[in-house]
Amino acid sequence: MNITIFLQQFLNGLSIGSVYAIFALGYTLVYSILGIINLAHGAIFTLGAYFTYALMGGTFGLNGLLANAALPIKLRFPIALILGSTLAGLVGVGVERIAFRPLRRKNSDTLLTVVSSLGVAVVIVNVIQYLVGAESYTFPANTYRGLPAAINFGSEANPIPIRTVQIIIFLVSVVVVAILTWFINYTKYGKAMQAIAEDATTASLLGIDSDRFIILTFFISSFLAGMAGTLVASSVSIAGPYFGIGFGLRGLAVIVLGGLGSIPGAVIGGLVIGLVEAFVPADYSGYKDAVAFGILFIMLLVRPQGLLGRKFVQKV
Amino acid sequence: MNKYTRFTAIFAVCAMLASCNGASNSTNANNTASNTTTTSSTIPIGMALAQTSNVALLGQEEVAGAKIAEKYFNEKGGINGTPIRLVFQDTGGDEAGAINAFQTLINKDKVAGIVGPTLSQQAFSASPIADRAKVPVIGPSNTAKGIPEIGDYVARVSAPVSVVAPNSVKAALKQNPNIKKVAVFYAQNDAFNKSETEIFQQTVKDLKLDLVTVQKFQTSDNDFQAQATNALNLKPDLVIISGLAADGGNLVKQLRELGYKGIIIGGNGLNTSNVFAVCKDLCDGVMIAQAYSPEHPGEINAAFRKAYLDQFKKEPPQFSAQTFAAVQVYVEALKVLDSKSKVATMPIAQLRTELNKQLLTGKYNTPLGEIAFTPIGEIIQKDFYVAQIKMDKDGSNGKFAFLK
After folding, report:
1. Which of A103, A135, B199, B335 is 20 to 30 A from A45, comparing alpha carbons?
2. Alpha carbons B283 and A88: distance in angstroms, whole number
3. Which letter does DSSP use for residue B268 in this model?
4. Nearest CA to A114 among A87, A128, A93, A95?
5. Are B308 and B68 in contact (CB under 8 A)?
């Protein structure tokens, strides 16, 4: 492998890995508060991308109920990204109300809640397909207006072009992780979330309204999923309603690798999986998932609590 | 249950979700069928096309062509007064979906013949089922090597890639005679694209060009930067892509973003206006060989083109024209049969066998021009074209401009 390809693949890996990281952070937040994996997370990832696409004034194709429909507004990408992710966050709050809260009230087994979230995922994906069809959609050509399509990190004679979108994804992800870390560790809300994660009963005895913070957690988690979906779609287009399912599964590999419920673990897990995938030879691109899950199985055998996870002690 | 056993359970559920994916595509059928047979007042013809999944991009165009044909021929009196009825079954994008659709059409809908499936990959597993059941099949867009050879009951109206594809390489050389180094990309998980790339690679060698690299990808991929970089480091003057609309369009986009300036040739999988939504303004200039031109002279093409333009406000694509032609072949063959003995009262097994014999002997003046079949069901077609994609300034829409 020559240095050009190595550098390119390294940066590609960082970029996709950083998206995995913010996506997996969403899983981690919900897991640390409720001890549950939200399987609708991948579907919300897809939904976020469609929301942003619609807010940028994108039209939907021939296939689906909303054929040829478009919103009358054409927002710029950064605004559409934030609004689209916010809408995804609100859908996440809805998912909590419909699929999580009723079961939590009845003290159901957590596995039932997981199955219920899986049901929500299937419904969301099918509703998307019903409304806008199975087509791929690419964000408008002027998404990153004014910026060149690629930046050359090499020389004129020996170019190392990196697509600008990859760099933007990486930078946005770094900023998002930084803000989230600050929010969790240094704000009253973040500390309250940590308290609930530690022990929900004690937290509520101390006057923390746990339902409110669970809603907040779902909002942030789904906001992150929607943002990750939009960022990936701005690089490789929205590949149809099933677009997020593969990411949903890979996100699980990321949090297992990093350690369930660990925020730095999700970041490191994301970067590791992104980089490993980037170095899968191009001819074997179909095996990327197999590599990600191979890592997951090895991790489960060698260190089931993940890289940064806490060892779980069964309390009798 | 401790946390880790619970996690394993969750994981199993996830795996289920992933595998349900394909299944839900195929069960999502647009089921307009009833239990009628040919003894009723209409003659059912089965349409096994991809209406969902990422292949729906192509399947939708075929559905459009079929519906125009149904209306057109029924307005002209159908089969000597008996209207035809198209029965649509969704195949989704995979083999299992195509097999389901074929079996439903054969056993439940009792169709006289089938038009489909969309992909060659699907034809290799679904068409043998129709052949064993002695039900005629006309492939509207199966262009891989070996389709008519599947069996006596399998024919196609889509000219094989070996005949169509070389035209685009010659057109590229005409535009830029200095082309020397050629990079070829193909989707390795798809039968059609594998077959198409062999033809392209052979054409490149026959024209004494230098094939500098062959890069593989999957139709489900969306990140092609590794393959694009590998190829661009070898500084090709011509790139040839065999893929489907979503992946092929994405590859075009990423090649252009990474700075490739030369000519790009797309295979038949990119031969759809749906590719415009994927690579937008960067689709501009992609050259694709064609088995159909909207400008083809003749009354039937004029009628077909007008019907399509009225409904969709754009020029009809090749797949729509080919599906129209496939329906037309059935209609005209049924008419000839009907003039000998009433098809509406013929037992279904006999009708299917007679129809298959008849359709292989006829000559048809279709929107594709005059076509006929070889005894094994391969299309004989005279006219081929090369088109180049021209996008609007804002990249939201485009068209195939036919090269002279």
Report:
1. A103
2. 31
3. G
4. A95
5. yes
Instruction: Supply A315's token pair.
Output: 């309390």
Residue B365 per-residue DSSP state: E
For A192-247, write each residue's pLDDT tens digit.
999 998 888 889 898 899 889 999 999 999 999 999 999 999 988 888 888 898 88
Adjacency order of strands within the sheet including B114-115: B84-90, B43-49, B114-115, B137-139, B154-156
B265 contacts chain A (CB < 8 A): no
**Where do we find the tokens 């059928």?**
B29
Hey, is the C-beta of A114 within 8 angstroms of any chain B C-beta?
Answer: yes
The span from the CA of B144 to the CA of B124, in Å, is 10
Scanning B157-196 for CB atoms below 8 A from A yields 188-189
What gap in Å lies between CA B218 and CA B189, rounded to an integer?
6
Question: What are the E-state strand segments in chain A?
Answer: 150-152, 161-163
Instruction: Supply φ then ψ for residue A168, to 5 degrees.
Output: -60, -45
Phi and psi for A242 in degrees, rounded to 5? -90, 0
Contact check, Cβ <8 Å, A134/B53: yes
Separation of CA A67 from chain center: 28
Q: What share of chain A is helix, strand, coil (3-state, %, to 5)?
A: 70, 5, 30
| Contact yes or no for A240 and B257 at CB 8 A | no
ipTM of the complex, rounded to two decimals:
0.83
Q: Which residues in B lie closer than 8 A to residue A4 (C-beta atoms)?
A: 229, 233
Q: Is A261 left (phi over 0), alpha (psi -120 to 50) or beta?
A: left
Contact of B142 with B124, CB cutoff 8 Å: no
Amino acid residing at A250:
R
- The whole-angstrom separation of Cα B107 and Cα B43 is 15
- A312 lies within 8 A of chain B by CB: yes
To the nearest whole angstrom, how far is the Cα of A141 from the nearest Cα of chain B?
A: 6
Q: What is the DSSP string of B9-22?
A: HHHHHHHHHHHHHH
Cross-chain residue pair B257–A150, CB shorter than 8 Å:
yes
Least confident of A78-87, A135-144, B170-179: A135-144
Closest partner CB to B56 (pick from A122, A133, A165): A133
A35 interfacial to chain B (CB closer than 8 Å): yes
Structure tokens at B404: 């002279």
- From first to last of its 404 residues, chain B has per-residue pLDDT tens of 455 555 555 555 544 444 444 333 333 333 333 333 444 589 999 999 999 877 887 898 999 999 999 999 999 999 999 999 999 999 998 999 999 999 999 999 999 999 999 999 999 999 999 999 999 999 999 988 899 999 999 999 999 888 888 999 999 999 999 999 999 999 999 888 998 999 999 999 999 999 999 999 998 888 898 899 889 989 999 999 999 888 999 999 999 999 999 999 999 889 888 888 889 889 999 999 989 999 899 999 999 999 999 998 888 989 999 999 999 999 999 999 999 999 988 999 999 999 999 999 999 999 999 999 999 999 999 888 999 999 988 787 888 898 87
Nearest CA-CA partner of A160 in A169, A148, A152: A152
Q: Output b/e per residue, B185-216; b: 16+ Cβ within 10 A.
A: bbbbbbbbbbbbbbbbbebbeeeebebbbbbb
Residue-wise burial string across A173-195, b where 16 or more C-beta atoms lie within 10 A, e elsewhere:
beebbeebeeebeeeeebebbeb
**From the CB of residue A101, how many other CB atoms can be counted at a distance below 10 Å?**
16
- Residue-wise pLDDT tens digits, A245-289: 888 988 999 999 998 888 899 999 999 999 998 888 888 888 888
- Asked if A148 reaches chain B (Cβ–Cβ under 8 Å), the answer is no
